[in-house]
Design brief:
Blueprint: E1 9-11, H1 16-25, E2 30-33, H2 39-44, E3 52-55, E4 65-67, E5 71-75, H3 80-85, H4 87-92, H5 94-101, H6 106-111, H7 114-120, H8 127-133, E6 137-142, E7 145-150, E8 155-157, E9 160-161, E10 168-175, E11 182-188, E12 199-208, E13 211-220, E14 227-228, H9 230-236, H10 243-256, H11 267-284
Parallel strand pairs: 1-3, 2-3
Antiparallel strand pairs: 4-5, 5-10, 6-7, 6-10, 8-9, 11-12, 12-13, 13-14
Bound molecules: flavin-adenine dinucleotide (FAD).
Flavin-adenine dinucleotide (FAD) binds next to strand 2, helix 2, helix 7 and strand 10.
Length: about 290
């Protein structure tokens, strides 16, 4: 049943400073409202417990995609459509573009934002695996300062994360070091479009003289948070991607993820699919 609209407040300050001032004056009272594609679903279902929102959609400070020699930086309000249209992202960060193209339908891609996807903190979200595999950093801003931190480690538990009530996610930064990197992204859902992931797998890999030099392996929908499989990455370093290495890596992966049975899938299916995707990814490193 839809929520009773007069119980909600939506403030629309016109500058970033005004937004941050409100967050600072009444911490925890106000929450950002970006594209609204997660929040409106809860509202429609009568499950939106929090009452006061700040509309941040018009803030130009949180928009735009900028490239320097070393990084590409995306405003938190960058939409999935904008991600897919960017030439550098398409060339150097194809997994992020693929995640964007497989997120919802066109309406969601036009409206939903990367910042909203991160802070909504669903373990089944599709852009976080790509962002983690690309070693993203995020910028949190508040009145009087800002801080950059690695995205890896930001989510500390189911829907828990290292952001204070007076902070806003402002930007996401990706290091441009994708030369000679293999990119591997698979979203496995009930169907090809408009489906929530049963398993989402994003990985990057580099080899040197047939030996695995560096990998980043990230799996979504298999734990309370999206999991970067650091132990599995360590296991692979310096080894040939042969059958024995793949077996060792699969055993390690199974120790790092802890899927559950839920409405979308079973733990058994998720474990099997995650392993299959790891095998497929490591096999691509052979050629
Ligand atoms: C039909 C449908 C299909 C979908 N399909 C997918 C899918 O395939 N894959 C997927 O991953 N998601 C999917 N989603 C979920 C949703 O579209 C995404 O999570 C989207 O990125 C959310 O962004 P938003 O701007 O709409 O967030 P909002 O709904 O505005 O906000 C979400 C949360 O983030 C907070 N927030 C937003 N921006 C900031 C900020 N800058 N700083 C601090 N807090 C902030 C809000 O307070 C709120 O708690 C789908 C949703 C719908 C309705």
């Amino acid at each position: 049943m839809r929520a009773f609209i007069p119980e909600y407040q939506l403030a629309t300050p016109t500058s970033l400073t005004d937004v941050l001032t409100l967050l600072n004056q009444e911490p925890g009272v106000w929450k950002p409202f970006a594209g609204g594609t997660d929040l409106m679903v809860l509202l429609e279902a009568g499950k939106l417990a929090h009452r006061n929102y700040i509309n941040i959609r018009g803030l130009s400070e949180l928009r735009g995609i900028e490239a320097t020699e070393t990084h590409i930086t995306l405003g938190a309000l960058t939409t999935y459509t904008e991600v897919q249209s960017d030439t550098i992202l398409r060339r150097e960060f194809p997994m992020l573009c693929q995640a964007a193209s497989e997120t919802g339908g066109l309406a969601i891609q036009n409206r939903g934002t990367l910042g909203g996807n991160i802070i909504n903190a669903s373990p089944a979200a599709d852009s976080p695996p790509a962002l983690l595999a690309y070693d993203a950093e995020i910028e949190l801003v508040k009145i009087g300062g800002s801080r950059w931190l690695p995205y890896y480690g930001f989510h500390t538990g189911y829907k828990e994360m290292a952001i204070a009530p007076d902070e806003l996610l402002a930007r996401i930064r990706l290091p441009r070091n994708s030369a000679n990197v293999t990119h591997y992204y698979r979203k496995v859902g009930t169907r090809k479009a408009q489906a929530i992931s049963k398993v989402c797998f994003a990985a990057t890999g580099k080899t040197d003289h047939e030996l695995i030099d560096d990998t980043r392996i990230v799996v979504g929908s298999v734990a309370p948070v999206v999991v970067r499989c650091a132990e599995t990455e360590d296991t692979l370093r310096g080894r040939k991607p042969d059958d024995e290495t793949i077996r060792t890596a699969c055993a390690s992966l199974l120790r790092e993820i802890s899927p559950i049975d839920d409405i979308r899938s079973t733990a058994k299916y998720r474990l099997q699919v995650a392993q299959n995707l790891l095998v497929d990814f490591l096999t691509t490193l052979r050629s």
